[in-house]
Amino acid sequence: MRLKHLLASVAMSATVLAATGAKAVEIEYWQYVFETRVKAMDQLIQKFQAANPDIKVKQTTFPYADYQTKVAASIMAGQGPDVVQLFYGWTDNFISGKMIQPLRASAFPAADIERDFFPIVSAMKRGNDYYGLPTAVRSLALFYNKKIFKDAGLDPANPPKTLDEFVAAAEKTAKRDGGGNLTQAGVTMDMTGQDHQWWREVLIRQNGGQPYTDNDSKVAYNDEAGLKALTFYIDLQKTKKVGQVGFMDEGQAAFRGGLAAMTIDGTFRLGSFNTIKAFEWGVTELPANAKGERSNYASYFANAITTKAQGEKLAAAEKFLAYISSPEAMKVWLEVVGELPARRAAALTPENLANPIYGPFLKGLEYAHTTEFKDEMAQRQVAIDMVNRVLIGGETPKDSLAKAATAEQAILDRAAKR
Amino acid sequence: MSATGTEAAAGGLWSRLSLSQKQVLWAWAFLAVPVLFYTVIRFWPTVQAFYLSATDWNVMRPASYVGFENYRRLWSDPLFWQVFRNTFAYLLLGTPISLLLSFVVAYYLDRVRFMHSFIRALYFLPFLTTAAAMAWVWRWFYQPVPIGVINDILATFGLPQQPFLRSTTQALPAVLAPAIWAGLGFQIIIFLAGLRAIPSTYYEAARIDGLSEGAILRKITIPLLKPTLVFLVVFSSIGFLRIFDQVYNINSNDPGGPLNSTKPLVLMIYQTAFSSYEMGYAAAQTVVLFLILLVISLVQLRIMRDR
User: Fewer CB atoms < 10 Å away: N or C end of chain A?
Assistant: First the structure.
């Protein structure tokens, strides 16, 4: 008896829900939990719904650790989001799993995208199709501790511009105790942080090479340029003795703790560094090489439309995606989350460029590269091990570089077969 | 459905059963819940893992059958053999050292009357601490100067710094130390219970016969502790073979590093499954771990069985 009642009430409430929802198309948006991102998206949804009363957007969030698995499992089960946020490096996986669909050219003409967005958006392009658009992007810059600079007799208003100046500043600011132990680092060395991106997309290019070829499916750094880039990095610890891998456990911890003069990190670190009270810090563009050539690494989370969205939901999803990739949305994102706008016009405003914090990151976007990772964690591990083999294992940089190239090529080949 | 309805319907059948049949039925009725739970939550996924290990499932696409391909890949993967060696290093160092330490502590603690429970509680305390929290504390102990406690002390006395977690040879023992320390409390409690279970009359008789303390230990205490010992050896072996949280948290930026020198099999499985999403390959590793655990447990039970 009770069961019947229960069934009846469930059926009734379902009908009621269906009746009230019939007026508006409801689409679901998924992203991972990060307080400011969720808050920004709530604001965007509110504004979007006010402008489009016939569309309702429901936001669902998950912890980052389970995010990719949950999205995959739910879409395969025919559930889940209509619009989904994904890291650009997952695009291949999502496409091969038939989880996301190409953006229709009628709604998102490729020419417009290429004109308005920073070139790094090409990492979302397969063939002639774009599979998603970012709201915000991240890039790298050099953070420096103004107090340490002043104490070492360096001008805090004039941070290093070239790699030579960078090394010279590191040499002036590094400190050692009587036993030769490093007590203050000139520069942090942490391949587990952003240094592997710096080595891959910046140092290798500045030495005249390129990290990969063929859409990042062939390792190309096992050459003179790759070796020079690796040797430069290793020498910071080995011969210049201005940094030490593992000093203060993590590079960002050393900088936060005021025991490192310089660190290379991304926009996503701003939130954490903004809470530093003990000293003032500044940001500057990543150092150029002797010829003045610069590079940077940019990454982003893009929003894509899943294969689940069809018919009127697809139209609603397109409208929503267009809104959250609009200049207006990017402005909200910058204010609430602190991430850089993905559209040139929204990013490169005189006001943003003059901002002492955002300025250097934005300038970096103009010449930034985006690695098309196939398995980001595994590829990062290759770089970590490459440096460890030299610093701990005593291998020559040349041997270690060759091993890294072989190991990473194996990862790329396996990914290509999938 | 209401309870009275069931009874009324089954009433005729139920009254015809004998008392013992009723007891059996009741027993099974109560057992049904755990049996069902174990079948659905434990055994079914285990069977699934065997099936998955023969596929190339990567979460994104439906699985397709690849036969023994995953096992072939595992066999020729140098990382697997390194991880295999590490796993056995944890086992072969961890189990004897932790058992020896805990036995010595329990043996002498058993004779201490002064603040006995307090000291016992102190030894037990680390066992109550979350492994992740503990790993983080030890992680800071092992840091280089200026923040690492151990290296700070070394530097104060003018001794050279030790790399600990930044060394391929020191890292594994450095990770193992907190794991042993954490498990000590539990093993001490079990040993104490085992020691207390030996009748004191045996000791009295031995002392009257003039046996030395060493002889008493060898001839009476250790043989009679055998059941306790078997339990602890099996239990701690499985623990060390499955070590994960300590390793992952003590070096979370390069888990199992440096250069895979501390990576145990469980961590390799985790990374294959949840960062590379190669579920089929990870399932094959799981099957291998399962077989290792099975063989070792069976061998230990056999060797340590009463003759």
Answer: N
